[in-house]
Amino acid sequence: EVQLLESGGGLVQPGGSLRLSCVASGFTFRTYAMSWVRRAPGKGLEWVSTISGTTYYADSVQGRFTISRDNSKNTLYLQMDSLRADDTAVYYCSPRYDNNWFEYWGQGTLVIVSS
Amino acid sequence: DIQMTQSPSSLSASVGDRVTITCRASQGIRNDLGWYQQKPGKAPKRLIYAGSSLQSGVPSRFSGSGSGTEFTLTISSLQPEDFGTYYCLQHNSYPLTFGGGTKVEIK
């Protein structure tokens, strides 16, 4: 059974930093691309970033967020710097195999950027 | 970037009604599209993948169609548990883009 457990969310001031983690189990982590998606309050879903052999970012986070992974720990990360109020959202992780996107999701972790 | 225009943004329908939601892509995306349902406080749930393939475990009243630039999600007979917000997602090219969402309410 695929399981994804996000953590690391919380309250942070504008301009601050936070690192999210996603621990995966139930599949061969190293062979899957991994993504982050977020949903801000009152808004729709937004793709944030994907890591395969290359990293990809939404324009809204390019240069501020860094996606990475540790295959020995089956863990995906999202380093978020220079946080802004509009980064406030629930952040989800999800694996991709071949062209099979977003079949599985974690429960999400809430990030609140506020002074 | 590929824009996904989803309509309507909201709808209210009765149990048993047929409901149709549409997504238009700003350029051709083959069938690289999925449909997702999200309920308050829950993670999204995939309903349809590859434009028209039904996700395992999803009721057969849900169906998807389309290819290229026009896609449709149909609920053949709306049920009380189908409330929530529905999104399309294109994964043909980066940046991946979601439609704006359709909020479905039960009358």
Could you tell me the strand content of chain A as a percent range? over 45%
Number of strands of chain A: 11
Q: Tell me the structural class of chain B.
A: mainly beta
User: What is the terminal-to-terminal distance of chain A?
Assistant: 40 Å
Helix content of chain A: under 10%
Counting DSSP E segments of at least 2 residues, the number of strands of chain B comes to 11
Biggest interface, chains and residues, is: A-B, 22 and 24 residues
Notes on the structure:
The complex is a heterodimer of chains A (115) and B (107). By secondary structure, chain A is an all-beta fold. Chain A has strands at 3-7, 10-12, 18-25, 33-39, 45-51, 55-57, 65-70, 75-80, 89-97, 100-101, 109-113. In chain A, the strands form 2 sheets. In chain A, strands 2, 4, 5, 6, 9, 10 and 11 form a 7-stranded mixed β-sheet that branches. Chain A has a 4-stranded antiparallel β-sheet with strand order 1-3-8-7, with no helix packed on it. In chain B, the strands form 2 sheets. In chain B, strands 2, 4, 5, 6, 9, 10 and 11 form a 7-stranded mixed β-sheet that branches. A 4-stranded antiparallel β-sheet of chain B has the order 1-3-8-7, with no helix packed on it. Chain B is globular. Chain B has strands at 4-7, 10-13, 19-25, 33-38, 45-49, 53-54, 62-67, 70-75, 84-90, 97-98, 102-106. Classes of the chains: A mainly beta (115), B mainly beta (107). The A-B interface holds A 35, 37, 39, 44-47, 50, 56-59, 92, 99-103, 105-108 and B 1, 32, 34, 36, 38, 43-46, 49-50, 55, 85, 87, 89, 91, 94-101.
SSE diagram, text form:
The complex is a heterodimer of chains A (115) and B (107).
Chain A: E1 3-7, E2 10-12, E3 18-25, E4 33-39, E5 45-51, E6 55-57, E7 65-70, E8 75-80, E9 89-97, E10 100-101, E11 109-113
Parallel strand pairs in A: 2-11
Antiparallel strand pairs in A: 1-3, 3-8, 4-5, 4-9, 5-6, 7-8, 9-10, 9-11
Chain B: E1 4-7, E2 10-13, E3 19-25, E4 33-38, E5 45-49, E6 53-54, E7 62-67, E8 70-75, E9 84-90, E10 97-98, E11 102-106
Parallel strand pairs in B: 2-11
Antiparallel strand pairs in B: 1-3, 3-8, 4-5, 4-9, 5-6, 7-8, 9-10, 9-11
